[in-house]
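Weekly modeling sync, notes
Attendees: AB, CL, MP (scribe)

Item 1: holo prediction request
CL wants a bound-state model with DQA before deciding which constructs to order. AB pointed out that an apo prediction alone won't tell us much about the pocket. Agreed to run with the ligand included and paste results into these notes for async review.

Input as submitted:
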Amino acid sequence: MSTVLVLNGPNLNLLGTREPEVYGATTLADVEKLCAQACAQHGFTLDFRQSNHEGELVGWLHEAGRAQAAGTLAGVVFNAGAYTHTSVALHDAIKGAAVRVIELHISNVHAREAFRHHSYISPVARAVMAGFGVQGYALAIAGLAAIA
Ligand code: DQA
């Protein structure tokens, strides 16, 4: 059985209390349960992580690339949070590790401030999902099942 790694970047630990008008009232623990259900439906094992540290996310992407090459990982659903709009290091990590990444945003970043319209992740992502709220995580897992 292959694994899906769901990676969450900075401030996503605050889901549920952070700007609920944008991100909703669902907590990250609820999102983990939703992902576990979606993974079970598609025959995946879930590995669910969050970090506020760019370097830690880089290390996890490298680890994911090795697991994908070994055939134990289907891919990564990655909400890089604000690092989406700033991080050349995450762009390079995805490219360097040759890991299959589905970029995910809870909100529709293109309907928000101009600084959220550019993503360093999109050019190295296999697919992009934005604006479905937290249900996007389940949809991204279903998408991975369709292409992995
Ligand atoms: C986000 C959108 C980003 O612009 C923001 O910095 C986040 C969350 C989203 O899920 O909608 O932290 O990635």
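Recorded for review: The two ends are 12 Å apart (CA to CA).
Action items: CL to compare against the apo run; MP to circulate these notes.
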